[in-house]
Amino acid sequence: MKKIKVGVIGTGFIGPVHVEAIRRQPNTEVIALSEINEELARAKADSLGIERAYGDYKELIADPDVEVIHICTPNHLHYQIAKEGILAGKHVVCEKPLAMNVEEGKELVELAKEHDVICAMHLNCRTYPLVQQIREMIARGDLGTIFAVNGSYQQDWLFKDTDYSWRLEKQFSGESRAIADIGTHWFDTVESITGLKTEKVCADFETFYKIRKKPLKPVETYSGKVLQPSDYEEVPIDTEDYATVLIKFDNGAHGSFTVNQVAAGRKNRMYFEIYGSKCSVVFDSEEPNQIWIGHRDGNNEIMMKDPSLMYPNVVEYNSYPGGHTEGFADASKQTIRKIYEAIEAGKDSDVYYPKFEDGYRELALCKAIVKSAAEEKWVVVEE
């Protein structure tokens, strides 16, 4: 079997997730990675068992053997790397956000249309097996008319004022942090499975830690990983820890969504409730192998992830039988599987996968939400 040869750019938290998901496909091979310098690239390549290591992403893109690039860098680099990849004739898989603003995103969408390459987003939350079951339930009319959608995406990794990341700085992450970082996953998941579009938003932002303590050296070097006063500098923060967004959908449905990165005990919880005229359904990513189905005139249900119980065209999103759990890494595997199906099938295929257009959609949503929070009013989502 001829394998599709892949290069991964960036090896922070999400880069190795991509490497693992790629390797779980039968028709792919990760042959190269790049990092900010040759020393780090070689160390990361050795730790991941990858042969080629480049200290400059341009060298990886120029490698004639690399057919697909995966962009796993900080946000501010996505646009330029994606553009160069497309122009070099490579297929591109990009982490969210697609770019730093809608103008850059629109340019990338147009470039993707003009060139004979697959350009995809790693919006993996939509491919949990039971999320796809909900998508099929809605398509078949099981929920009836959708009246309301409520939910949240909450984490606690920035709970302390000593928690720090490049994502806190606008020059690297963009105008929005919590909404752009994890809120985009919620909106993509809800819109892609319901078929609804967010028409208007009314948002409220808050930054609970106006000042954070930025480490002056790697945390691992601290004795007991405890900051001493001389080990950090206090820096002002102007990206949101928290946001609540009221939503009006294009079918007349209403909704609300909260994102919070200082929610103690919530490690990585994407949650949504969809209320229809026939029944309602609830998904919780920290319990991804079951969904709650609510009824007015009968018992409520807990549906387990079991291929034998799911709709036939959803079974492909399951890799294991009932009782065998599948989670975040498996959702990434399924997203990457669909992307590589599209690469093999060609640009004009009808394979369902998250495209650059979906990444652009998230940029448009973020722009409207940020504007709404700043102006304290309802804002129309424009594309």
TrEMBL record:
Q: Which residues form the Gfo/Idh/MocA-like oxidoreductase N-terminal domain?
A: 4-121
Against InterPro entries, the record matches this protein to: Gfo/Idh/MocA-like_OxRdtase_N, Gfo/Idh/MocA_oxidrdct_glycsds, GFO_IDH_MocA-like_dom, NAD(P)-bd_dom_sf
A Pfam short name = GFO_IDH_MocA_C3
Q: Which GO terms describe its molecular function?
A: nucleotide binding; oxidoreductase activity
What domain of life does the native source organism fall in? Bacteria
Keywords for this protein: Oxidoreductase
Residue span, GFO/IDH/MocA-like oxidoreductase domain: 131-281
Please report the name of this protein according to its UniProt entry: Dehydrogenase
